[in-house]
Amino acid sequence: MAVNDREPPPGGATRYLRECLRLLRWGAGTLVTAWRVGRTGSLPVVLGLVVIWIVFESIDTDFLSARNLSNLSVDLVGMGLITVGVIFVLLVGDIDLSVGSVSGLAGAIFAQLNVNAGVPEWLACLIAVLGGAAAGAVHGFFVARLGVPAFVVTLAGLLAWNGLMLFILDTHGSINLDDQGLVATLTNHYFGNALIPLGLAALGLAAYLAVALLGRRRRTVAGLPGPTLGAVAVRAGLLGAVLFGAAGVFIGFRGLPLSVLILLVTLAVLDFVLRRTTYGRKIFALGGGIEAARRAGIAVEAVRMSVFTVSGAMAAVGGLFLASRITSVGQTSGQGDLVIDVIAAAVIGGVSLFGGRGTTWAALLGVLVIQSIASGMALLGVQVAVQFMITGSVLLAAVVLDSLSRRAQRSHGRA
């Protein structure tokens, strides 16, 4: 055969297509394997969130506008802070139904002290948070020391702390906060300089790469299997797209909200506490089995009391952010469907109701799903009843996935 009659080698486009198909096959195989062994992680939540955004954007093009996404991010901060406290309780296999009332109580304490008694804002905030922590410690005492079921204790707390909030507000009904004060600033201040969100995005990506590569090196030295450099690069690329995409959204509308920065820092700090400290390992140990943790020498009662204290304190902090958003505290503060949304957000984000599995970042994912549904429904003018039905369906789907995941892990000897 003549040289000119030979088939030319495949061009660059063909090689690119083949490489894409190879990556798709690898990704599909990885997903199937992860599903079979119950280790899908947060992927179902992320995919669900993408579907929600695509659906709402196709119906109303204002949904993914910089203005709406920025407002959505500020709206979710209060609930997100409360959710991350509830996650500590869920990780040990308990539940806290009182967080809504505790958040309202903290707002009432702050308003009464600052507005009516003239106490400086910083001191009133501190007292309010300490009050929330004290309420959580009371719950923890009855649950850990006296053995009363957490469901009953926190349900009683839901009623009792709501009553105390109404008593503190007395005849005022509602108390308006200073719209130029410290608490109001929490959700009303924006960093307008574009370099700030871009710099923080770069810092976050660099921190992730440093932690991932250091963890991989440690596992390699210890002779344990770890993620490949390719997997780390893919995750870093996806995280970078999210971080710089969020930075672009904030730059497009007023800048980076202070409240969002506080939420992200809080999640990062508490994630470090759970994953990198002895205290965090004790929490996961309790979630794996209280009796086994006791036999391992863990002070079970002290740890259980502490997680309820953390939950109460974070509920109080979240309550201050909720009050900041509307610059007032009223008799309905912390009521309604707040406690349901908070627990639903934790479960939707990937925290197991059976204890022992979850991260603080689940608060961000879960609240983002719930707030996205709420925001989309508001833009479309859909009734609240429909929103409840959709949120309930998403919650049920998350619990079913959690149950199936645990069953798959048990069948593969991982649970």
From TrEMBL:
<keyword id="KW-1003">Cell membrane</keyword>
<feature type="transmembrane region" description="Helical">
    <location>
        <begin position="386"/>
        <end position="404"/>
    </location>
</feature>
<keyword id="KW-0813">Transport</keyword>
<keyword id="KW-0997">Cell inner membrane</keyword>
<dbReference type="InterPro" id="IPR001851">
    <property type="entry name" value="ABC_transp_permease"/>
</dbReference>
<feature type="transmembrane region" description="Helical">
    <location>
        <begin position="72"/>
        <end position="93"/>
    </location>
</feature>
<feature type="transmembrane region" description="Helical">
    <location>
        <begin position="121"/>
        <end position="143"/>
    </location>
</feature>
<feature type="transmembrane region" description="Helical">
    <location>
        <begin position="361"/>
        <end position="380"/>
    </location>
</feature>
<dbReference type="GO" id="GO:0022857">
    <property type="term" value="F:transmembrane transporter activity"/>
</dbReference>
<keyword id="KW-1133">Transmembrane helix</keyword>
<keyword id="KW-0812">Transmembrane</keyword>
<dbReference type="GO" id="GO:0005886">
    <property type="term" value="C:plasma membrane"/>
</dbReference>
<keyword id="KW-0762">Sugar transport</keyword>
<comment type="function">
    <text>Part of the binding-protein-dependent transport system for D-xylose. Probably responsible for the translocation of the substrate across the membrane.</text>
</comment>
<protein>
    <recommendedName>
        <fullName>Xylose transport system permease protein XylH</fullName>
    </recommendedName>
</protein>
<feature type="transmembrane region" description="Helical">
    <location>
        <begin position="338"/>
        <end position="354"/>
    </location>
</feature>
<feature type="transmembrane region" description="Helical">
    <location>
        <begin position="305"/>
        <end position="326"/>
    </location>
</feature>
<feature type="transmembrane region" description="Helical">
    <location>
        <begin position="189"/>
        <end position="214"/>
    </location>
</feature>
<dbReference type="Pfam" id="PF02653">
    <property type="entry name" value="BPD_transp_2"/>
</dbReference>
<feature type="transmembrane region" description="Helical">
    <location>
        <begin position="256"/>
        <end position="274"/>
    </location>
</feature>
<feature type="transmembrane region" description="Helical">
    <location>
        <begin position="41"/>
        <end position="60"/>
    </location>
</feature>
<feature type="transmembrane region" description="Helical">
    <location>
        <begin position="226"/>
        <end position="250"/>
    </location>
</feature>
<keyword id="KW-0472">Membrane</keyword>
<feature type="transmembrane region" description="Helical">
    <location>
        <begin position="150"/>
        <end position="169"/>
    </location>
</feature>
